[in-house]
Amino acid sequence: MSRSIIITGGAGFIGSHVVRRFVTKYPHYRIINVDKLTYAGNLENIKDIEQAPNYVFEHADICDEERMNEIFSQYKVDGVIHLAAESHVDRSITDPLIFVKTNLIGTANLLHIARKHWSGNFDGKKFHHVSTDEVFGSLEMDYGYFTEETAYDPRSPYSASKAGSDHLVKAFYHTYHMPVVLTNCSNNYGPNHFPEKLIPLMINNIIHMRPLPVYGKGENVRDWLHVKDHARAIDLVFHEGKAGETYNVGGHNEWKNIDLVFFLCDLMDEKLGREQGTSKGLITYVTDRAGHDLRYAIDAGKIEKELGWTPDYTFEQGLSETADWYLSNQEWLDHVTSGEYRKYYEEMYK
Ligand code: NAD
Ligand code: TYD
How many angstroms does the Cα of residue 60 sit away from the middle of ligand 1? Predict the structure, then answer.
């Protein structure tokens, strides 16, 4: 094997797409998926590649110094792509401490262990921190984009913990010259998205004719990117990104939540052979999220100019394929919503 790369959070939504991409595209790399399997970790997401000879799963917590030390020693790790995190804003409002623990302390632990193991020889090493555009705060409705120079202004416990982790990563570059790269990406969608987030929650509820909870008036704006476009950006930045640099990743694809929910309702009615308007009747306006950021929008000019990345998916194509994926993977959805998916690990690995 020419490289030994840890991907943290590889059983989660985005991590599973990154793991699959690396395991299949780089058979000469050993890919070590380090995941604690929280409620968001689901090994069913990657069952198609788990027998690959260059893939290993390590059930571990990134906060566990001893275990991380062992894994770095055992596999002689020379690269890290760090996605493990608590990722849901609503959960961060009800339980902020676990976000500080995993996102901040977990990232600090990984940086510390990587530095210890790579100390004195950073040749051929790379630490890629996968982060979010939410660290930049909230934009006005009608103007402005987040660039790599935008000042950090996080508002939720989730974004604050991710902002802190970004600062730690940058500190390790400036203080120890560790070769780090960062990507700050907009909202992702696609297969294997946990149905607590807007798009899969709406799809799941439409399938089951349940209420569609829209926060506030549904006027908040998000910039949506297909998860496979994100995985391709991560691949590119991990290999070609300049040490110490940040790259913003986004789709120039802004949607007001309510317009997106309307669009999804029409799309699902068509796919389910229901009368148009059926799903719109399920929309329920609910109390707004506390501190709800108004608008996110990414200027992805740097990654386009410097590394030649632009999204492949149009939103219409990506959303239609995503809806089809959920419709033909209802077992996945049922396992996730019933908790059945937790058994997969027990059966396969214990
Ligand atoms: P996710 O919640 O679907 O998956 C997170 C994964 O991390 C899970 O498999 C979970 O088991 C694992 N994990 C959590 N705590 C852990 C710990 N202490 N040790 C080891 N593993 C642990 O998240 P996601 O949506 O795939 O996001 C992945 C990363 O991308 C996160 O860092 C997130 O901040 C970032 N990001 C997400 C989005 C998005 O739209 N989802 C956008 C930009 C950036
Ligand atoms: P979400 O998918 O949680 O991502 P984030 O908060 O990280 O952007 O939410 C996307 C948008 O959808 C956000 O503005 C909150 C809103 N939303 C709802 O209106 N209803 C819901 O049930 C959920 C989960 C989100």
Answer: 14
Q: What whole-number distance in Å separates Cα of residue 250 and Cα of residue 225? A: 6
pLDDT tens for residues 256-271? 999 999 999 999 999 9
Domain 3-192+225-252+295-314: CATH architecture, name and number where available: 3-Layer(aba) Sandwich (3.40)
Give me the pLDDT at residue 145, please.
98
CA of 88 to the centre of ligand 2 (A): 9
Eight-class DSSP state of 275: P
Ligand 1 pocket: which of 6, 7, 8, 13 to mutate (most atoms <8 Å of CB)?
13
Catalytic residues: 133-134, 158
- Confirm or reject: Cβ of 185 under 6 Å from ligand 2: no
Cβ(35)–Cβ(41) under 8 Å? Answer: yes
Q: Which long-range contacts (CB under 8 A, 24 or more apart) does 170-174 make?
A: 170/244, 172/111, 172/115, 172/127, 173/243, 173/244, 174/244
Using the predicted structure, report yes or no on whether residue 337 has a pLDDT greater than 90: no
Q: What is the pLDDT of residues 188-207, one digit of tens each?
A: 999 999 999 999 999 999 99
The helix (run of H) or strand (run of E) holding residue 263 is: helix 257-272
The β-bridge partners of 3 are 29
Q: Whose CA is nearest to atom 30 of ligand 1?
A: 83
pTM: predicted TM-score of the whole model, two decimal places: 0.98
User: What's the rounded Cα separation, in Å, for the pair 226 and 79?
Assistant: 25
Mean pLDDT of the chain: 96
CA of 85 to the centre of ligand 1 (A): 4
